[in-house]
Every structure is written in C-alpha cells, then in structure tokens.
Amino acid sequence: MLIAILQEAPAETTGYMIAGYGVIFSIMLIYIASIFIRRRNLKRRMAMLEEMQGKQE
Amino acid sequence: MESRPRALTILDIATILLFIIAVGLVFFYAPMEAVMGQVQRVFYFHVANAWVGMLGFLVAAIAGVAFLRTSNRKWDIVGLAAIEISFVFFFIAIASGSIWARGSWGTWWTWDPRLTTSAIVELVYAAYFMLRQGIEDPDRRARFGAVYAVLSFISVPITFISIRIFRTIHPVILGIGSAGAEGSFDMTPKMLLTFMFSLLTFSFVFADLLWHRIRLGSLADQAENLKMKVLE
Fold first, then answer.
1. Residues of A in contact with B19 (CB under 8 A)
2. Chain A residue numbers touching B45 (CB-CB < 8 A)
3. pTM of the full predicted structure?
4. ipTM of the complex model
5. A19-50 burial code (b ≥16 CB/10 A, e <16)
6. Which residue of A has its CA nearest to B224?
7. Angle between the B138-152 and B42-70 helix axes, to the nearest 10 degrees?
8. If pLDDT is split at 50, 70 and 90, which confidence band does B171 have?
9. Cβ proximity of B114 and B81 under 8 Å
C-alpha cells in the first residue's frame, strides 16, 4: 500500500501521443494520395498526347 | 498502358492488413510506459519511419551504383523513387521525434548529435531534388543524381552511429547508449514485439510504396517520350 502511494504516476502525455500519431498518419496519407493523384494526372496527359499523336498520323 | 500486376495488389492488401495490426498493437497491446506515459507509444512508429528513411537511402545508393555501371534509366527511376519515399518518411521521423521530445525532454528541439545529423541528412537529400530540377538533359540528370545518391549516403551511417559514439541525450533502444541519454526505457516483451512488428510493417509499407512510385516514374518517362514524339 505504502509503495503504491509513493510510486509516481506516469506523466500525462496523451496530447503529445495524439499529436505524434496525427502527424505520422496525416503526412503518410498525403504522400500516398499524392502518388495516386500524380498517376491519374499522368494517365490523362498520356491519353491527351496519344490523341494528338493520332490526329497527326 | 501496363495493367496493375497481381503481386502488387497482394502486396497492397498484405501491407494494409499488417498496418492495421501494427496500429492495434501500438494502442491496445503494448503497455503504457511507467515514466513517460502515453507519449512513449510514438516511439514505435517514429523508429519505423526512420528505418524506412535509412532503408530507402541505401536502396537509392545501390540504384546509383547500378546506374553508373549499366547506364540503364530504370535504375534512375528506382533511385528517385526510393529517395522521395525516404525523404518523406525521414521527415515524419524527425517531426514525430520532436513531438516525443517535447513530451519527454520538455523541448521540441535540441542540437544533440542525433538530431543535428538527422537534420543534415534531410537537407542533403532535399538538395538532391534541387539538383535534379536544375538539369534539363535526362541522361545527365540521371548520372548526376546517381553520383549524388551514392555520395550523400555517407551521411546516413553517421546519423545511425551518432548516438553510439557521441555523448547524447537521445536514447539507444537496442544496444548501449550514452550515459547522458534521457527517455531510455527497458522494453518489456510486449513492447519488443510491438516494436519489431512495426519495423516489419514499415518494411512492407516501403516495398509497396516503392513499387507504386517506380510505376509512376515509368509512366512519367513514357509520357515524356510521347511528348517528344508529338513535338517532333
């Protein structure tokens, strides 16, 4: 009982944990989204270029 | 246009499943650390992000050597893909480490050897993108990029060993750290399992993203070639 009273409780750092994982998940998500957006844009650009090439021929 | 390989879809699914399990382990399986409290949980993904960073820089250096030996453009695409992913993940490691430090050391940043060398690594690889942007000719850009990727990798092992050879407050999780380290803790078996599983998961994340990014790089190359044909 005495030991339990004397033992210090862990520091209250929940906010920092939430902030840490918020940063980790947000940046990962943005990066993954950027890959898919860039791919979609490239496909559109290629389709347009193929169309232009078709008109030239 | 190439179709999506079946193996990539399997890798996507495996990575997502591993990631979900890793998140579950971090928040519901690993016990709360007795001194630092909840912020210690940041450590699992913080280290895993740094691992992806260092792994990718190594892959880029190897791709750089392969390009210089073969002059095959596919190695340039691999190198660029690996550096881009690692740059992002290493940044996440620095940012999450800063948040952990605030909760643990009471400061967002300190010019400690590990933090300083990490910041240098990030800046060195930021310069890689600037270098590429400044070169028009694709072959010359690939050659300069390969040389830069090989040379800049020197900064990575220096960062890795910095906490083992210099007096630092950054804790060493595996092995013996500096006497002045703050925020060290003894890993319980559950913590160790969560840590190892996070490293495995992020290795899968890296492999999966690398594959996607290489496909994107190849597509960009095709688009560039097609543009040249149309303009001729």
1. none
2. 20-21, 24
3. 0.91
4. 0.90
5. bbbebbeebbeebeeebeeebeebeebbeebe
6. A46
7. 130
8. confident
9. no
